[in-house]
Amino acid sequence: EVQLVESGGGLVQTGGSLRLACVGSGYSFNDYHIGWFRQAPGKEREGVTCIDTFNGKTYYADSVKGRFTVSRDNAKTTVYLQMNSLKPEDTAVYYCASTGIAGTVVEDTWTDEDEYDYWGKGTLVTVSS
Q: Which regions of the chain are under pLDDT 70?
């Protein structure tokens, strides 16, 4: 059974940092791209970042560029999301997701939820002002 499990969420003050982790199991995690999405209360889910498993290329939403960093440790089948300089508007449930077709090119489509076949249940990040 494919599983993606997020951890690391919590309550942090404005300007603080958190590191989220996404651990994959039950499939060839290292063969697929991993994205992070978030959904704030009352808003649609949006793409935050994605890391290409083949070339390590990373993509970021404009709202998090320069503050968030995505990385992966294939030996641990884990992708991390380091979030710095957090703002109240970063408050959301954060989900990791995996593409399900090996070789998919996501450079122009990484924010499209349809690119991803597997999803975690999410972890809540709350940034207080």
A: none
